[in-house]
Amino acid sequence: xxxxxxxxxxxxxxxxxANLTRHFAIQVIxxxxxxxxxxxxxxxxxxxxxxASLSLAVGVCAGLLAWATNQxxxxxxxxxxxxxxxxxxxxxxxxxxxxLLAFVLLLSIYRGAICGRIPLYLSNSHTAAxxxxxxxxxxxxxxxxxxxxIGSVVAMIANKNNCAKITGIENAPLTWLIGMxxxxxxxxKRIDWRYGSLWEFEYSGFDIVYAFLSTEPMPELxxxxxxxxxxxxxxxxxxxxxxxxxxxxxxxxxxxxxxxLYCYEF
Length: 266
Ligand SMILES: C[S@@+](CC[C@H](N)C(=O)[O-])C[C@H]1O[C@@H](n2cnc3c(N)ncnc32)[C@H](O)[C@@H]1O
Hints:
Helix content is 54%, strand content 13%. By secondary structure, the protein is of the alpha/beta class. It binds S-adenosylmethionine.
């Protein structure tokens, strides 16, 4: 990736840090508020007020703060439940090593959700079939799945299409590892399975970029792709349109969830 392009997308990191700092601050403020109130009230001593009720009070306070600062609905639930759950799980007396193991496993699968609000969920086979048909129709030679999960779309496309070289890029370590096994099982020379961030990749060499991400990265992804992709190439976004941009085509996938593929031409 050129220096100019890298500089263009650097603000992303500070955005992620700002998000994490905001959520951390809500929890810290809630804890400090409850403990300050307890200290001020003085009539209630630690002996009389249990850790259970303190954690519940922090949960209520954090939930209210999340609501007052307009956090998305799921974050309000997460903030309300976080400290009460910490207390509840702590009282189960589980070996600390298990928590570390669970944390490392979750991080190595859901890194994208934590760092960029792009969780892991998979395209279904109907969607992959629609994408394969589009690749055939446009006679695309080079296709990339950005945030390729466990390689299921890459493998399906490689099995269905004869012409395309298909690349998959994924940055969650365990997900990537599973994807490597899945794509190796295909034994197709046309698959290029990569480890890395979709933000540090250059897309000028691709006829079709397939993305199944979330609402969060779409505006910034559009800026990056418009800057890098060449005339006549296409972004196909599963379920998440680019805000304010009219797609050239919307494909209705014939599946039970009514999946839409938003296709943008460059
Ligand atoms: C919704 S899943 C889609 C998986 C696959 N493309 C599919 O359609 O089945 C999004 C994937 O993007 C990955 N991801 C998130 N942020 C990423 C990044 N910065 N670079 C590469 N992959 C990322 C996540 O780990 C996750 O596996």
